[in-house]
Design brief:
This protein is an alpha+beta fold. The chain has ten helices and twelve strands.
């Protein structure tokens, strides 16, 4: 049971007991991890595999066809509508979707008012940015009438952020530089009362939509991402011995992020559907097979890690990535994962046509 306390004073409110989120905990996809932590704090016993599947994040795969883009992994690209992932995710944990986005006309005071109202009511906020890149994090409190924020952020302990971040005795970050960070893009409430209930059928339909994907502008999504990823990996001109180190680091990061999408996403999709098969007995055979295909896709990512020499993103992995033989092996495994996802997609389409699923 989570031990919760709320400390208030004239110009501050801090919610203690919100579970920590970090890359060292139970996953590597920030937004669903924040959803689970907030849901658990609010007394909703939800598992990570459910939140990954119900939000749709478990089924994403995106590749920028024009560059090696470190933003490929962002959940915002899961659906064609960029806010759908946030709306679906909030509804999945029983919260009403309420997002305040940052624009050229946004004022810091508006963000402060939004955050204070939620925290004072006992609800942590999920924000994009605050510290580091525009990934999801949790705001658990404020001081100095909102000028200083506290919470959990995946980048709070990174040395490059040391000048603008302090650490509370609870482990929460403390920062008064959050607005100056131009990657602070939005804040969402976790107040109760979802716009709609996420059903099993909704999850199946959203999974099919994310997995089927298409090429949207410069982004290849879902099944289409595999061919774009493979093409980039097999482009020998991008991996000559003369490639400077920063560019090679960028390429390895993109490769690793795509592997993470499969390892974390498809693995948790497999766990979710394996559990569902125990409850939806009439079609348990199909659902179990669906889980197996997602498990196979995740396994392909682990094979890629073996080929690269591990999950680390260091010098050894960079040297291996330059090697044409390594990249040809990766291309085979990319096709392997694609075939597993194609089989899963066919089952998802079949299940989506069953009217009684709920």
């Amino acid at each position: 049971m989570i031990k919760k306390t709320k400390h208030t004073s004239e110009d501050s409110t801090v919610l203690y007991g919100v579970p920590k989120v970090s890359y060292e905990t139970y996953g590597c996809t920030p937004f669903p991890m924040c959803l689970k932590a907030c849901a658990n704090y609010l007394g909703r016993d939800l598992d990570y595999d459910y939140v990954m599947a119900a939000s749709g994040a478990a089924f994403r795969l995106v590749w920028d066809t024009t560059s090696w883009n470190g933003g490929n992994v962002d959940v915002i690209f899961t659906y064609d509508d960029p806010v759908k992932i946030y709306q679906t995710g909030m509804n999945a944990i029983g919260c009403k979707y309420n997002l305040l986005g940052r624009t050229a006309k946004s004022k810091k005071e508006d963000f402060i008012q939004f955050i204070k109202e939620q925290i004072d009511s006992g609800f942590p906020c999920i924000a994009l940015g605050i510290i580091g890149p525009p990934e999801a994090c949790i705001i658990t409190g404020y001081r100095d009438n909102g000028r200083t924020l506290l919470g959990w952020n995946f980048f709070q302990d990174y040395p490059e952020n040391g000048s603008c971040v302090k650490t509370d005795e609870s482990g929460y970050f403390i920062t008064d530089k959050w607005w100056e960070n131009t990657d602070t893009k939005a804040v969402m409430s976790t107040s109760q009362g979802s716009d709609e209930t996420i059903t099993f059928k909704n999850i199946v339909e959203n999974a099919a939509a994310a997995l089927e994907g298409r090429t949207n502008g410069k982004y290849a999504k879902g099944i289409y991402a595999y061919d774009a990823w493979k093409k980039a990996i097999l482009n020998d001109s991008e991996f000559s011995e003369s490639v400077i180190m920063p560019l090679l680091v960028e390429k390895l990061m993109c490769q690793g992020d795509a592997m993470d999408c499969l390892a974390d996403g498809r693995k948790n999709a497999s766990i979710f559907f394996s559990k569902a098969a125990d409850h939806i007995t009439e079609h348990s055979g199909q659902i179990k097979l669906l889980a197996e295909h997602f498990e196979e896709a995740a396994a392909s990512a682990f094979k890629m890690a073996d080929v690269l020499g591990g999950w680390e993103r260091g010098e050894q992995q960079m040297r291996n990535l330059v090697n044409p033989r390594t990249r040809k092996q990766l291309a085979v495994l990319i096709d392997e994962a694609k075939n597993s996802d194609l089989k899963a997609l066919e089952i998802l389409k079949e299940l989506s046509r069953l009217s009684f699923l709920n």
